[in-house]
Amino acid sequence: MQFWIVGTDTDVGKTTVSAWICLHTACSYWKPIQTGCVIDESGASVNSDSSYVRNLTDTKIHPEAYVLRDPLSPYMAAIRENRKIDTSKIVGSWSDRHERKIFLAFGFCMMMASCIIMALATEIWHVFVGAAIYGIHWGATQGTFYAMVTDYSPPQIKGTSIGIFNLVYSAGTCVSNVLMGELWTRHSADVALTVNGAIAFIAAIGIIFVKPNKQKEKVGVK
Asked: What's the whole-model pTM score?
């Protein structure tokens, strides 16, 4: 069971509600990005929401993917500190505690959405939105692919499995690029993007039927 606690603006009760859920369920707690923190000499936050939940409950607290000093939105706080927020790091942390195929399916859906937006684009900003969504697809799938390969590989051939995956992935990329190029040349960019989106949708559905490799713990996410 998973809970996503969201709310607009600060001091609306997100952390308190999260603590209450953790106190009355078997969920653990994770806040991917924490801003507005006082950071001690060891680099740890001393006033984070995770600390607040830890003081109120005995639930398991997962470390944040990013801790930023300025009490701003994650995007603005990262700019102020000249840091880059990598979505693949956040998704990778999620996938370590949940079933990885969920994140692959999400990533494929983002690719489908990106292709549809670009196929229907009439202004330049539509293309930028499509490219941004494609970036979410990339962050959600690339690291998860490798983690899933190692999950399903026997311990003695994990490195070999990754090598084979890279070979198959590269060959598939070459073939798909040629096919999409032909569709683009013979028909139009819209047709190529639509076919690409359809393939991504089929992949998102197909990955759901992959047999789970192991049971993931229940995590409450803020």
From this structure: 0.59
Bridge partners, 30 (sequence order)? 221
Distance in Å from the first CA to the final CA of the chain: 13
Instruction: Take residue 90 and report the two structure tokens written for it.
Output: 């956040």
| Dist. CA 25–CA 220, nearest whole Å | 9
Q: Give the gyration radius of the chain's Cα atoms.
A: 20
The residue from 85, 109, 125 where one domain ends is: 85
Assess whether 72 and 118 both reside in one domain: no
Identify the pLDDT of residue 220: 44
CB 140, CB 91: distance < 8 Å:
yes
φ, ψ at 30 (rounded to 5°): -150, 125
In which domain, by residue range, is 144 found?
A: 91-208
Q: Which residues contact 179 (CB under 8 A, 6 or more apart)?
A: none
Domain tally for the chain?
2
Same domain, 95 and 203: yes
